[in-house]
Design goal:
CATH topology of the largest domain: Aspartate Aminotransferase, domain 2
Radius of gyration: 21 Å
Structural class: alpha/beta
CATH class of the largest domain: Alpha Beta
Shape: globular
Number of helices: 13
Helix content: 40-55%
CATH superfamily of the largest domain: Type I PLP-dependent aspartate aminotransferase-like (Major domain)
Strand order of the largest sheet: 2-10-9-8-5-3-4
Length: 388
């Protein structure tokens, strides 16, 4: 329900809560219906066929001719699988940070005792590819680079295509966290030369949390044959089970059914069209928010999530609370040192212009109630959508 800037009352204006978080995202009705099916047993021909269809659809989404493994886990499980399967004892890694989820790569490497260096950037800025180039030139013993595409904590997008050019030139592996970019931003794995991409089901894939994916480019197939000690996330086990249409351990059956429907929706729209829609959503959100008096936190904004700095004198937590309590819109605040300084609006998945209009209207109302009135932000958002 759209709220005009004049609506300064604290009375609720909604009948249901709506998610505009950086994940999990709102789940489309079609996906919820698929989720509600009576699940088949996972060792039956019915589910084996489903599992293979979903795996093949994920391969198309990753745009790779290589293998895709589905895990019953969140995206962090896929990240951990990448570390344990790709790094062998004594090998050194490079973590590309620039935000909380880039830091997660570093923490995973630390947890497994993997020697590593790190390159960083101020939160909200993209990591300079030249830093990656310099780190690899400085230390040839580095075998693998771990980086993030869309950094959820800051709303920034990093130039992983440039990272791939650098790692290929140096003969190193590149692992990308595409948890908030797959289905949102183009990331053609084989074309760009990315060895491994990890993802989760609850972001751009608009399914519930609980299914993670690891995709290996064709030339990276042998990379998992050594690795660190591992058991549940041993991709060699997944590789043996895949030709049977099975996972090595019990899969998240109902979530796989839901994911299949979500992937069908992306296929029906067309991946290029989905990327274009997310670009338009992001441009409209940024333009409308700025017109309402908010500023962008990231200098390299992602199409998955927009991080806003509130107008002077308004705490980010105030915006988060009023969006929730008055407008029925759930967004995310800032993390760590950004708490209270920014808030993050997610718009990945099955969102459209009407969702952006509602959010921009609410942001106008909040600015007005807090003494920062503005007008015309919705028109600005619509114009940006048309122009993107």
């Amino acid at each position: 329900m759209t709220v005009t800037p004049a609506a300064a009352s604290s009375t609720r204006t909604f009948t249901r809560m709506r998610l505009f978080t950086p994940g999990p995202v709102e789940i489309p009705a079609r996906v919820l219906r698929a989720l509600s099916q009576i699940p088949p047993h996972h060792r039956t021909e019915v589910f084996r066929a489903t599992f293979q269809r979903v795996t093949n659809a994920m391969r198309e989404l990753h745009r790779t001719e290589g293998e895709v493994f589905l895990l019953a886990a969140s995206g962090t499980g896929a990240m951990e699988a990448a570390v344990t399967n790709l790094m062998s004892p004594g090998e050194k890694a490079l973590a590309v940070v620039g935000g909380k989820f880039g830091e997660r790569w570093k923490k995973l490497l630390e947890a497994y005792g993997v020697p590593h260096d790190a390159v960083d950037a101020e939160w909200g800025k993209a990591v300079d590819p030249a830093l990656v180039e310099a780190a690899l030139a400085r230390d040839p013993s580095i075998t693998t680079v771990f980086a993030t595409h869309s950094e959820t904590s800051t709303g920034a997008i990093h130039d992983v295509q440039a990272f791939a050019k650098i790692t290929r030139a140096h003969g190193k592996r590149l692992v990308i966290d595409a948890i908030t970019s797959l289905g949102v931003h183009p990331i053609p794995q084989d074309e760009w030369g990315i060895d491994v991409i990890v993802c989760g089901s609850q972001k751009g894939l608009m399914a519930p949390p609980g299914v993670a994916s690891v995709s290996l480019a064709p030339w990276a197939a042998a990379a998992i044959e050594r690795g660190l000690p591992r058991f549940y996330f041993d991709l060699r086990k997944a590789r043996k089970s895949a030709p049977l249409g099975e996972s090595a351990f019990t899969p998240a059956v109902s979530l796989v059914l839901a994911l299949e429907e979500a992937l069908t929706m992306i296929h029906e729209e067309g991946l290029d069209a989905a990327h274009a829609r997310h670009r338009r959503l992001a441009h409209a959100m940024r333009a409308g928010g700025k017109a309402a008096g908010y500023s962008l936190f990231s200098s390299s904004p992602s199409h998955a999530v927009t991080a806003f700095v509130p107008p002077a004198g308004i705490d980010g937590g105030t915006v988060v609370k009023r969006l929730r309590d008055v407008h029925g819109m759930v967004v995310a605040g800032g993390q760590d040192h950004l708490k209270g300084k920014i808030f993050r609006v997610g718009h990945m998945g099955a969102y459209d212009l009407s969702d952006i209009v509602a959010m921009v209207s609410a942001l106008e109302e909040i600015a007005s109630v807090n003494g920062r009135p503005s007008a015309g932000a919705v028109d600005v958002a619509r114009a940006a959508w048309d122009a993107a």
